[in-house]
Amino acid sequence: MSATDDQPTLQAPRPPAQRRLGLSGKLLLLTIPLVMIALLMIYVPSIANFWTNRLNDRLAAANTAALVLDAAPLGMVPDSLARQILTSVGARAVAIKMGQQRRLLASANLPAAIDRDIDMRTLTVWSAIVESFETMVDTGNQTIRVVGPAPGGAHFIEVVVDEKPLRLAMYRFSSNLLLVSLGIAMLAAGLVYLALHYLFVRPMRRLTANLVGFHENPESAARIIVPSQRGDEIGVVERELSDMQRDLVSMLSQKSRLAALGLAVSKINHDLRNLLASSQLLSDQLASVPDPRVQRFAPKLMRSLERAIDFCQSTLSYGRAQEAEPDRRMIQVEPVVTEVRESAGLAADASITWINAIERGLSIDADPDQLFRVLLNLVRNAVQALDNRPKGDAATLQIRITGRREGSVAIIEVSDTGPGVPAKAREHLFEAFQTSGRQGGSGLGLAIAAELVRAHGGDIHLVEGTIGATFRVSIPDRPVELQSVRNERARA
């Protein structure tokens, strides 16, 4: 034996979980760029509007100065007054065009050349944005000629200004705007973050923690999440998760009980099979007894013991493996029904009326042993249903078994006059360990019967609208068997 056979296999330890960014961190990282984008969308038109208003203010001041300068006698203005007016306007020169004449109203320290021309009459939003940012990125002290509409009959007015004071004013405005906007944005981002954190992140953390805890011990009912009263999608998830965990806990508990039951039955089965084998040896000795009654019942006893041994050999085959393939052949239904009645103890029971309505000569393409098990389970269920009713006239306690053929399908019905099947039990009628509410039932009879019938390619179901309960078994003939029967009938 190798070392791996002597020692249990050890699972490799799980690597430590890497610290990942949680939902709160991701939300914060997502909020920051969104706030910056919002600030940028506010800042761009704001700075362009400030630049435009600043130039318009210069034109308005130039218009006022033009009125003063134009009102002077013979247009003669002292240089000191002209400089004062230009200083108040914040310009180097003011000119106006009237008709075909262009007049320079005042000037001081004019440069040799103008660096940029801006016509406020044709300025668009996009060009205002571009021009404002060009002003901010420029260096030095360039001169700008600004052209705008003039009052009265003049065509336009021109004013030459320095770019540097305008740029410095734009810097101050930008810093003030950014500080105010940043404060407002941080406050709004904080409120949004807190709202999203309490509305979404905390519930998601609660769901995550519950899933992790439930994964550690899925059989504990204490790990089931308690849903909140929320009416949104998270509330729906909590309620659905609670229902799913509750169903899973119930299913795992049932599986655990079934596993323990399977182990116990396997141990019992081992000893029971030996006891049945001993009983079979004793029944073989009864066959040599000359008593006619013994000779009549000994074969049936031996047959019952053989079936019991076979059943023990395949105990729990429903949950552990599939039933054996049916050994199908054309058989008469009447003898099987008679044997079912005797095995169920109804032959000598006068308290329950047995009604046999099998068509004469009805044959079925089935495994005789499996058909016997199907009918015996149905008849025993009927007996249990009648046992729950008060004892009275035997005419009111009846078990009826009917059989007929519809084309290539043989139909057998087992009916009783009991209380019927409860509506709650009908949902899982043919599932294992789902009893119909009767005392003493194991919940396997109908499940085994359904499995055996399906192995024949047939169907079993509860017939609605009948007194008590009526189960209908339909088994179709195999095409090969049906053709052989027709050939035999043709030869006969």
TrEMBL record:
Its EC number is 2.7.13.3. The keyword ATP-binding applies. InterPro entries: 2C_sensor_his_kinase (IPR050980), HATPase_C_sf (IPR036890), HATPase_dom (IPR003594), His_kinase_dom (IPR005467), Sig_transdc_His_kin-like_C (IPR004358). Pfam families: HATPase_c. It is an enzyme of class 2 (transferase). GO terms for molecular function: ATP binding; protein histidine kinase activity. It comes from the Bacteria. The keyword Zinc-finger does not apply. Residues 267-479 form the Histidine kinase domain. Gene3D superfamilies: 1.10.287.130, Histidine kinase-like ATPase, C-terminal domain. Keywords: ATP-binding, Kinase, Membrane, Nucleotide-binding, Transferase, Transmembrane, Transmembrane helix. The chain crosses the membrane at residues 27-51, 177-200. It catalyses: ATP + protein L-histidine = ADP + protein N-phospho-L-histidine. PROSITE patterns: HIS_KIN. This is histidine kinase.
